[in-house]
Write a structure and sequence with these properties.
Layout (H helix, E strand, L loop, with lengths): L10 H10 L3 H8 L2 H4 L3 E7 L5 E6 L5 E6 L3 E6 L4 E7 L6 E6 L7 E6 L4 E5 L17 E3 L6 E6 L6 E6 L3 E6 L5 E2 L10 E6 L18 E6 L6 E6 L4 E5 L7 E2 L2 E2 L7 E3 L13 E7 L5 E7 L3 E5 L8 E2 L1 H6 L29 H20 L3 H14 L6 H18 L4 H15 L4 H13 L3 H14 L4 H22 L12 H14 L5 H6 L3 E9 L16 E9 L8 E2 L9 H10 L5 E2 L3 E3 L12 E4 L5 E5 L4 E6 L5 E6 L5 E6 L6 E5 L3 E6 L20 H17 L4 H13 L12
Parallel strand pairs: 9-13, 19-27
Antiparallel strand pairs: 1-36, 2-3, 3-4, 4-5, 6-7, 7-8, 8-9, 10-11, 11-12, 12-14, 14-18, 15-16, 16-17, 17-20, 21-22, 22-23, 23-29, 24-28, 25-26, 30-31, 31-32, 32-33, 34-35, 35-36
Helix pairs in contact: 1-2, 5-6, 5-7, 6-7, 7-8, 7-9, 8-9, 9-10, 9-11, 10-11
Keywords: Repeat, WD repeat
GO cellular component, one term: nucleus
Pfam families: WD40 (PF00400)
């Protein structure tokens, strides 16, 4: 795969075209061309913070970089000199998680949000003429209306008057500097600022079919640069939400709990929309530079790309589609005719070239050879991705069908997280091409068996056996599935009477606790008392943080046991309930609202980016690189950061960027430079200075020689352990907030952000 060409053309041809016909489009394509991306290496390390650097952001021209840290400071860096210009003592009392330049203010206004639930605005002009060590700056505005940590800020291009803040209290607030420069602390007697743009305190969903009910702790938000009325938010469930600010109700007070407003679209990969994934949540959401796509980064999961608008290439699904996806009868009414011998040359449409035909055929053969030999599975999958994601419209159905089945088999052999779900997608798409495809039925049965859906697996295996009754592999597959079904039936009989025998995870307990807490607003005091409960739970704690990336991944894990007594605690803060809110009123009215709830649809994934690990922090970003957004980047818990080609998901580059975790990745607005930060106290600057292009090079320790696939496999093992032992990061965050309230929390400790 090293010698496979990329899709952005030859850089020398671009340079020649720019010299003969200067074009803004050519300049954009040149910013992060594939040949430059593969030469990225660490250029410089910016020193000036004394704690983890949780936020970095460029100004609009790229002349300045702002950063926020656990040291409670906001630093301003000059891009041309790579020097620290200002280090602002903000007055925050907990870790700074987000900071931005306010547009159209000559880069003099900077806003920050932190774990103390405050949003602060600073005018850097107040530092002029001061001594270097005189860095304390009184905020020009201070908003204290949030009740939990502020995790993300958003600004609108061209708007110097407004900033938006997303908080774990379930609200997104709009702060207009022209209307007020302060508000009393949340819970105070006079606290009644009307700044709530989105009230999602009853907005979280466990599944697409479920009505929203629990608090959606917001982790991220973004405003489209091309259509600023569009607002994207993500938080403590699996669904990112797109809102049109023009259609939202007027700003409200936080003292009045409102029902969640309708959104334009939900975004969630179909396989993540099922009920039961209680610890699944988003850590970052963002628009593409042209506003046509969104990127979602999940904790304990991968990075996913989706289209914003419904149209060609966009799949919108409903809860019914989710339930029927694994059914044998699904899509049989929508299959294509079996592949026919075409008059086109060697299986290509007329718009395909002979060279492209040869390339795709060779790639499919390479993938099939790897499948047979059981070697280089990762690169074989990338070869299939190249054919299906870059040339699917050019090849005819017969070759596409063969490639889909081959990729499904490769995914099932690799067995990384959710590979079985991806294989099932390929099998269903292969069935659309050929309804009598033995391979599609056979590999679908294998995928379903790996997913534990044995009844459905037996249906597909039986159908495959009818197509080839004497095939030894399918006969063995049918018997294997039958044994799994018998074992599952025997296990079910052994369950204790009156219960499933399943051990509840912490996130299960927390979700039930929040549900009871929220529903208690709907009940009289006597009804609410009946739902109080105390439960004691013993849980093993295992973190994935490791300082020795080359050793045993388990050797540095911190283990222990924790005895907890979990009980519902009433909220002392007075909250008015809106009369039209589904979560207010009597228990019977709440039940009626749930019964009458009409589930919405959601937009499915377009592409998945895989290889990194995101479980240790909940501020980990996934970013588009370049003005055209042709590459995707994300940090990882192993101290690396990954770059993929957006079109195909092909891994472009892996770089070592931190001693522990890379959280933030921000590309320069115009230059071929990327800034990253994480647990280290420094900011790394990356530029294409390596003499030779490669998939791994550079990093703080010099050229990397580690095996990339081994590193990714280690990350996948961590993701799988996180799934099997779903210790909720949210619970750890709650413990830290309790420690902070009791004065036992040190602000520089940032192993769990």
């Amino acid at each position: 795969m090293e010698n496979l060409s990329f899709h952005d053309g030859n850089i020398f041809n671009l340079l020649h075209s720019r010299s003969t016909e200067p074009s803004h489009d050519v300049d954009q394509r040149m910013q992060l061309h594939s040949s430059l991306v593969r030469r990225l290496s660490q250029e410089q390390e910016l020193e000036g913070h004394q704690g983890c650097v949780n936020a970095i952001s460029w100004n609009s021209t790229g002349s300045l970089l702002v950063s926020g840290s656990d040291d409670l400071r906001v630093n301003i860096w000059d891009y041309s000199s790579r020097k620290l210009v200002h280090s602002v003592e903000t007055g925050h009392t907990a870790n700074i998680f987000c900071t931005k330049f306010v547009p159209e203010t000559s880069d003099e206004l900077v806003v920050s949000g932190a774990g103390d639930a405050e949003v602060r605005l600073f005018n850097l002009a107040g530092l002029r003429g001061r001594a270097d060590d005189d860095n304390a700056l009184t905020p020009s505005a201070m908003y204290q209306c949030h009740t939990r940590r502020v995790k993300k800020l958003a600004v609108e291009p061209g708007n110097p008057n407004v900033v938006w803040s997303a908080s774990e209290d379930g609200t997104l607030r709009q702060h207009d500097f022209r209307e007020s420069t302060s508000c009393p602390p949340a819970g105070s007697a006079h606290q009644d600022c009307r700044s709530v743009l989105l009230d999602l305190r009853s907005g979280a969903k466990r599944a697409l079919a479920d009505p929203p009910k629990q608090t959606l702790s917001l982790k991220s938000c973004d405003i489209s640069a091309t259509r600023p009325h569009l607002l994207l938010v993500g938080g403590s469930d699996a669904f990112a939400r797109l809102y049109d600010r023009r259609m939202l109700p007027p700003l409200t007070s936080c003292r009045k709990r409102m029902p969640p407003p309708p959104c334009v679209n939900y975004f969630c990969p179909m396989h993540l929309s099922e009920r039961g994934r209680t610890n699944l949540h988003l850590t970052h959401v963002t628009f593409s530079p042209n506003g046509e796509e969104v990127l979602l980064s999940y904790s304990g999961e991968h990075v996913y790309l989706m289209n914003v608008n419904n149209g060609v290439g966009t799949m919108q699904y409903t809860p019914g589609d989710v339930a029927n996806f694994f059914s044998l009868s699904n899509i049989l009414h929508d299959v294509e005719s079996p592949p026919q011998v075409s008059s086109t040359q060697n299986g290509f449409h007329r718009n395909g070239s002979a060279a492209m035909l040869k390339k795709c055929t060779e790639l499919v053969e390479l993938a099939q050879s790897s499948l047979e030999e059981g070697t280089d599975i990762f690169y074989a999958i990338e070869a299939a991705n190249e054919v299906l994601d870059a040339h699917s419209n050019d090849i005819e159905s017969a070759l596409r069908h063969e490639c889909l089945c081959t990729r499904a088999a490769l995914l099932l052999k690799r067995k990384w997280k959710n590979d079985a779900h991806m294989a099932a997608r390929d099998c269903q798409n292969a069935r659309r091409i050929d309804a009598s495809s033995f391979k599609a039925y056979y590999y679908m049965s294998e995928a379903l068996q790996q997913l534990g859906k044995c009844k459905e697996a037996l249906d597909f295996a039986t159908a495959a056996q009818q197509l080839k009754p004497s095939d030894a592999d399918i006969v063995a597959k049918v018997e294997s599935i039958k044994r799994d079904l018998q074992a599952a039936g025997a296990e079910k009989k052994e369950e204790p009477e009156g219960g499933t025998g399943r051990v509840l995870s912490l996130s299960d307990i927390l979700y039930r606790s929040e549900a009871n807490s929220d529903s208690s607003h709907d009940m009289s005091r006597s009804e609410g008392d009946q739902s109080d409960y105390d439960e004691e739970l013993e849980v093993d704690i295992q973190t994935s943080m490791s300082d020795d990336e080359g050793g045993d991944p388990d050797s540095n894990a911190m283990r222990g046991s924790l005895n907890l007594r979990i009980h519902r605690v009433s909220d002392d803060k007075p909250i008015e309930n809106s009369g039209d809110n589904g979560s207010s009123g009597t228990a019977s009215s709440s039940q009626n609202d749930r019964t009458s709830y009409q589930p919405e649809g959601a937009i499915d994934m377009k592409r998945r980016y895989i290889g990194h690990c995101n479980i240790g922090t909940d501020i980990k970003q996934a970013s588009f690189l370049g003005q055209r957004g042709e590459y995707i980047a994300c940090g990882s818990d192993d101290g690396r950061w990954f770059i993929w080609e957006k079109q195909t998901g092909r891994l472009m580059k892996v770089l070592v960027g931190d001693e522990a975790v890379v959280n933030c990745i921000q590309c320069h607005p115009f230059d071929s430079v990327v800034a990253t930060s994480g647990i280290d106290n420094t900011i790394k600057m990356w530029s294409p200075i390596a003499s030779v292009p490669s998939i791994v090079a550079g990093g703080s320790a010099g050229p990397a020689t580690a095996n990339v696939v081994e590193a990714m496999e280690s990350n996948q093992q961590k993701l799988s352990r996180n799934r099997e032992n779903p210790l909720s990061v949210e619970l750890l965050q709650r413990f830290r907030m309790q420690e902070f309230a009791e004065g036992n929390f040190h602000p520089f400790e940032c192993t769990q952000s």
